[in-house]
Specification:
It is a single chain. The protein has a domain of 49 residues. Helix 1 packs antiparallel against helix 2. Helices cover 59% and strands 0% of the residues. It has 75 residues and is an all-alpha fold.
Length: 75
Amino acid sequence: MASVDSASDQRTVNNTMRHQYRVLSDAEKANMSAIKDKGLELLELISGMGNSREISIAKTKTEEAVMWAVKHITA
């Protein structure tokens, strides 16, 4: 499967649910990339702490926070 950068204006080509997107400004693209980078950084830090129910929840909530922040930008 081909991949498309999430900040690309071509991000609709592999999304079956959302059929229309608005074009993001350069600032919005930069913010989205920064949020995803910071989220990944936190996820990697949390993942290095071992395994437990609490770690699993922390990882899920980190992913959720990134999702909602990106949703705000792309809405």
